[in-house]
Design brief:
heterodimer; A: 281 residues; 16 strands; B: 459 residues; alpha/beta; five-stranded parallel β-sheet; 33% helix; binds flavin-adenine dinucleotide
Chain lengths: 281, 459
Amino acid sequence: MPFKILKKQELVPTIHLMEINAPRIAKKAQPGQFVILRINENGERIPLTIADFDRKKGTITTIFMVVGKTTMQLSALKAGDNISDFIGPLGNPAHIENEGTVLLVGGGVGVAPIFPQARAFREAGNKVISIIGARSANLLLWEDRMREVSDELYITTDDGTKGHHGFVTDIVKKIIESGEKVSRIVAIGPPVMMRSVAGVTRPFNVKTIVSLNSIMVDGTGMCGACRVLVGNETKFACVDGPEFDAHLVDFTLLMNRLAMYQPEEKVSLEKYKCGREGCTC
Amino acid sequence: MHMLGRQKMLEQDPGIRRKNFNEVALGYTEEQAIEEAKRCLQCKKPKCMEGCPVEVKIPEFINHVANGDFDSAVRTIKSNNALPAICGRVCPQETQCEELCVLGKKGESVATGRLERFVADYERKKGVEVPEKPEPTGKKVAVVGSGPAGLTAAADLARMGHSVTIFEALHAAGGVLIYGIPEFRLPKEIVRAEVEYVKKLGVAVLLDSVIGKIETVDELLCEFDAVFLGTGAGLPMFLNIDGENLNGVYSANEFLTRVNLMKSYKFPEYDTPIRRGKHVVVVGGGNVAMDSARCALRLGADEVTIVYRRGEEEMPARAEEIEHAKEEGIIFRLLTNPIRVIGDGKNWVTHIECINMHLCEPDESGRCKPAPTPGTEHKIETDVVVIAVGTSPNPLVPRTTKGLDITKHGTIIAKDDGATTKKGVYAGGDAVTGAATVISAMGAGKTAARAIDEYLKGK
Ligand SMILES: Cc1cc2nc3c(=O)[nH]c(=O)nc-3n(C[C@H](O)[C@H](O)[C@H](O)COP(=O)(O)OP(=O)(O)OC[C@H]3O[C@@H](n4cnc5c(N)ncnc54)[C@H](O)[C@@H]3O)c2cc1C
Ligand SMILES: Cc1cc2nc3c(=O)[nH]c(=O)nc-3n(C[C@H](O)[C@H](O)[C@H](O)COP(=O)(O)OP(=O)(O)OC[C@H]3O[C@@H](n4cnc5c(N)ncnc54)[C@H](O)[C@@H]3O)c2cc1C
Ligand code: SF4
Ligand code: SF4
Ligand code: FES
């Protein structure tokens, strides 16, 4: 059952938007959930967070960064192309209620999954403060969309080309120290970023939620590839998460497990590049 | 003139097959099949049939084979069993149909499974015949899960004239047959062909559909007149010992899914990677452990060791699988139990620490309870560990279905006919019994199909 790509666009270098026709998933999708896709018969199953959904149009939007073979292959597809499999919505929806003020932190491609949450928290009546960060100004994602759904928006870049020169954690700390009563922080981005946010908020005891991007296969609780340690208990990120209490997550284990297939990922990417660029290996 | 011994089936030589994923058993030739079929006594009260949960008319189909009328043999089998090529390969015949065969008392029982396999393979090569479609009843049934239970229920319901749709979470149909049992025991081409047959009976198969997420059972009941749950027992258990989250430690489900469903044995032609260990340790003593060990060997391991806490007598795996594993050079460390997994400080597994066990008085299952022998702790060097100590049903459906009761083990509560505690919802297979066999799951699918038919008539 092929799924059609309706829109495909490079938003910033290496980060792409892809809108897929998937009415049955769009009907059910909630912020915080993800999909698993497989490009073709030989493809692997990779998870991507739902960055937006349109129930009327029956579409799901994902935003992905090119990091290896599958995401590179995906980036080469165009509107009108099909992918074999698109499965979801998986994982638990984000916990969204009117609690007062929430702080949303998105790093790099993590801005995409933060967006539907920001919108939902806003619609639920919260004051939404957002911080989005990137390595450099030209890699900053969805500033306009985030501004639309935030009461306050802060921008950070590692190299100072836009907004605050430094990391998202600097602003997180400033906001908490300013006495702003934040009931919840949701941080999505690279594991190092999520770990730093957890480190900053722990002493203040502010509820902090992160979305874990462990390696997955089925996404339904069947394989255990995605296991993470939370509060010293083994959890399956796909069915028990993907969101967890940041203060209880063992980030070192997460990062170690993400490195599990590094040699194979390299082989796969090289082979793919060779095939496309016509070398003779 | 009934020889005591059965026809031998050709197999790939162990020294060759341990390096490839091709099928181990090669099947009967026509001559062998006819010879074997002639051994059957055509009993008036065939004991063999009592051992077959899907009621294959064993003497009748065997008689056709003996007469060389393979087409009639196919029709006879398929009137009760939609998946004969699968059953002929993976049914534990020695404890089903063949155990009860009268010939087994003096010599070897008739090789019913091998004959069934022969007949099914004959038909696949020749082109599959589809029976005529019955008058539609206008009733709609949803089947959740496309394992042997779901496929059998769907096939039978379709043949009764109901409109059937299967919802399957994965991107391929077949359940354990496609993601668990390896290519060299059950070629995936055969599973696909039997699924195609079920589709030809009029069954629609919707893949990539996780029930409980994309739709709930309660929502299905708005659209369908009844629901059958054949969701299996796919949740892997771990040992809950230190070091189980180290890199290189797999659940058997993950290991086998990567190898079989995702074809990682063909990496990088297929994208999904698998860690190819040099010394692989598999923990467990069932079919799943044997399959994992034999896959690890074929992925290129120098040494594969099965660690099992009881003795060989107590191993739940089929005798034939244990035999095949031994022939291929798999090492068995019996009465041995892991106590922790040890890593290299960078989260990679390097050793598994075990303790010797001894058997004491039998437990409630009638097997001897193993107990650790203090002071016998020892380490085994390893770079890939596969944990194959059992599975339990996935809670996704029960958690999202109002009024569907489960036991404390997570299995769905169902009567003998498959009726659950929720009206219009039936269940069968591993989801109800816990991990069992292909044929028992098929038997449950068949029984539930009858009960659903009755229920729909009264609706
Ligand atoms: C719940 C969840 C949501 C995610 N959402 C997004 C998203 O919205 N946008 C985005 O760009 N990325 C997201 N990711 C990460 C994304 O799945 C990986 O980047 C992708 O699988 C990489 O595949 P590849 O073949 O291109 O790279 P590879 O060469 O295979 O790997 C590169 C990196 O991706 C990780 N990775 C590889 N395979 C998997 C896998 N099957 N599952 C998870 N990680 C893997 C590796 O650890 C490695 O760090 C998400 C991951 C999870 C678990
Ligand atoms: C490695 C291995 C080897 C085995 N070897 C043998 C053997 O040689 N002989 C033998 O007789 N038995 C064997 N078994 C056992 C046998 O395979 C099972 O008992 C049998 O497959 C159970 O059938 P089932 O239909 O109940 O479930 P399954 O085969 O488990 O199928 C369940 C299906 O339901 C799907 N599903 C689950 N939840 C959902 C959901 N929420 N929505 C949609 N779909 C869902 C799953 O993806 C799966 O496809 C083996 C098992 C394993 C794991
Ligand atoms: S289906 Fe299985 S149990 Fe029944 S006759 Fe065939 S091999 Fe024997
Ligand atoms: S019990 Fe054995 S000999 Fe008798 S009919 Fe069945 S297969 Fe033939
Ligand atoms: S991805 Fe398989 S259990 Fe989570």
